[in-house]
# Entry
Amino acid sequence: MGAVQLSGLRKFYGALEVIKGVDLAVNAGELVVFVGPSGCGKSTLLRMIAGLEDVDYGRIDIAGKDVTEAPPAQRGVAMVFQNYALYPHMTAYDNLAYGLRRAGLARDAVDQRVKETAALLQITELLPRKPKAMSGGQRQRVAIGRAIVRKPEVFLFDEPLSNLDAALRVEMRSQIARLHQELAATMIFVTHDQVEAMTLADRIVVLNAGRVEQIGTPREVYHRPANLFVAGFIGSPAMNLLPASLGAGGVTLASGPVLGGPTGTGAAVTLGVRPDRLSLAPPEAAHLSGAAKLIEHLGDETILHLHLDDGAALTLKLAGDVAVTLGARVHARIDMTGACLFGADGRALRPLPAP
Amino acid sequence: MSKQRKATPRARLAMLTYHALMLAISAIFLLPFYWMTISAFKTNAEIFSDPVTWLPDPIRWENVTSLLTRDDFPFVQQFLNSVFYAGTVALLVCLSCSLAAYSFGCLRWRGRNLVFGLTICALLMPTIVTFLPVYLAWSKIGLTGSYWPLITPFLFGDAFFIFMLRQFFMGVPRELLDAARLDGASEFRIWWQIVMPQLRTPLIIVGLFATVYTWNEFFMPLIYLQDREAFPLSVGLFTFQSQRAVEWSVSMMGAFLTALPMIVLFLFTQRLFQRGLSSTGLK
# Structure
């Protein structure tokens, strides 16, 4: 399995720069997930690695070889698409065999490889069927088989689970994780689903407007977002971002309360607090107060959306089924454990020490 | 609910008027064809009888044998010529136009839209404008009097069919082409092995259009062909009618048998037109 090295990649569509200088090293056997909002360039970047989009500037190395100008089939990559992209007029067997035949493998070798792969993915009974006679999950398994059968250096997944229903998505996710371990394969996975990113990734690459905002393990990206964009993007519900300053007594909210922690001389900062770090409190112990404008009862937890007195929004994630009525006045207290601070430029200052 | 469904007298009247109008318009279009059909099975005297007989009585089947055995109208030979001409053009149109449509609809290359625009411009150019220089060119290389000038141009596509097929090619999911590229298929192979099988219905439709168009084509064969044995039916029938103007029943039988294959073809392929694009989806 090969490593992937992207160096200074840039891509233009006419005058519009869609990939703005991406540097990234994916280690051999690693599963890296690209996440980002729609139009951030994650799929374009994946297609550039696959050779399906031209590179305007920069270089791509796969398994130590410069493949920037190489055609897709000679890069040692295989790709799984969101809409499966199985050849509709061919059986699953022929779909798997097509690439091997193009590579000039002998009939016996093709047959053996297809059957081995089908056994690995438990799709042997699907081999004589055409895609239209399969369910979505079966088609995606065949599509993954088509990638595996070629024994590529790198697997590329372009939102492969988006078309599946929730239950099937969980099943396929664990199957991909299992394959990653069994094959010790290098995988690059594009998704906009954060749960997929957090559960599958060895490392997450957060992209925004053609730039890499942060590269890190899921825990790093979640607990130590590098900037306001990542803080707001990773985690659901999103991190609360509150205007504050660093005063003599520590972090001081714009609305008045002093929360402690690092001190300063009044520099403006943004305080990032995860919704689960907020709790209900009596008025005298509360840091923030507001009216409940939306309550989501999820059974084991309650998501409470507040409209604060100063007009800002605040989200609380509370354990259990909390009885709050819509429009009721709610008081919240911030637990500074794991809170983040961002400077005026939007970059993270440092992780706060536990109080 | 049932009350609401009942048409009001006013709506019923509107519906009746609408259908009456449609039937009248259909009759106007069908009448010449009906006249040709019944005349094909009458004698000359019966065709012009007064009052008009709307059904041939008796049906003159001998008109068929009389047409097929004439020395001055080699119907069977001309029928085979038409089959060859229309069939070859349909095949060439499907191949050459789909190749061009693949390039315009599935590939990205600099100047693609400009070249496509120029191709469409060819639609605006009347044949009559170019036929003289083109005829002279064929004449110089000594190939007039054969089917070469009639068939060869379709090796290079036809603007209308390229335009028509491009719409279908644009509907082929991009990922399907990408998957084939990753599998190591060349663009030519992707066109032939991946895209063409998806577009069987549009290709048949284009083939049918080309067949009908060529079957009825009159001007080009008239210009290029001189020998009666080489004429397709369109020209053969015209020549016969202009030379034997009084033999209406044989002439009508010729016209009927010329139109019949196309009508039968359409009766059997109607559903293809209705099916349209729906068969190209992946999901």
